[in-house]
Amino acid sequence: MREIVPEPQFATLEQQTETAQLGMWVFIATEVMFFGALIFTYFIYRLTYWEQFRLAGADSRILLGSINAAILLTSSLTMVMAINFAKEGRQQRVIAFLLVTASLGVLFLCVKGYEYVLDYESNAVPSLNFAFKSGYHAPSELYWVWYFVATGFHALHVTIGVGAILAMTRLAWRGRFSPNYYTPLEVLGLYWSFVDTVWLFLFAAIYPLGRAVT
Amino acid sequence: MSAKRESLVPYIVAWLVLMLLLGMSILSAYLDIGIFHPMVTFGIAATQAAIIFLVFMRLRGRPSLKWVFAAGGFFWLSFLFGLSIIDYATRSGFPAH
């Protein structure tokens, strides 16, 4: 491993690390407001069109949503393990756990893609092939609009995350991290865990509707 | 920064708790609790988020500047939520039919 020195504008690597982390937290704050606004629109729709959202939500696929939640939660664990191994200077394990994390991200996208295919086949895609089922009125379509907007933006974040993890894997392969400097991994870990968190809220909004046994 | 080993146990315990909460969230979908349903599912999601922020995103420990930045987004989001709720709560003729 080569010696890593701080960038010219920083006195120490610790200062560089802290600055990078704060930068990512600022970015996450903007993301909180972005997804927060999206969740807020959901609350308004849900409270306004309670019965229609219950009906439409019952047609979502809770099994696939649950599998995806488990996949992302596990990927957060593998990501944090990669960071820990970087802290210990165990390069091979860092690479292995980064690859596992990226694979879980890809698996999430595959499951989501499969779910989109099923949604299309059941005529649930607004402005493409949406069909009103028994009991459906206009707000039911609104549920599916919200579903595709929210999960689409989330999938975009996962895709960017997977790309960044693969880029970090390349850097780890080249020995660019050491026990004294693994900041890019820590910063990426913050992003990845946040993307995981967003899915938990989308899960709560999308899947549990209309399944209660009365 | 140091090269000392950090135990993985807290992370694995956190992951187990998160999976348990996910199971509770799935289970709650099949309970007939009416208007309380969103509160339960979003309550579980908020608990999971808190665990991820504290453990996986390393906000636990001594107070630091990170807390201010992490809280910043939620602080401004509270304004968005609060003012929007006031708007909808006081608007007449909503929803439009």
Your description of this structure?
The complex is a heterodimer of chains A (about 210) and B (about 100). With about 210 residues, chain A is an all-alpha fold. Chain A has one domain: Up-down Bundle (Four Helix Bundle (Hemerythrin (Met), subunit A)). In chain A, about 75% of the residues lie in helices and about 0% in strands. Chain A has helices at about 15-50, 50-55, 60-85, 90-120, 140-175, 185-205. Chain A starts with 12 loop residues before the first helix and ends in an 8-residue tail after the last helix. Chain B is mainly α and about 100 residues long. In chain B, about 70% of the residues lie in helices and about 0% in strands. Chain B has 3 helices and no strands. Chain B has helices spanning about 10-30, 35-55, 65-90. In chain B, α1 packs antiparallel against α2 (about 35-55). The model of chain B has no long low-confidence stretch (mean pLDDT about 90). Chains A and B meet through α1, α3 and α6 of A and α1, α2 and α3 of B.
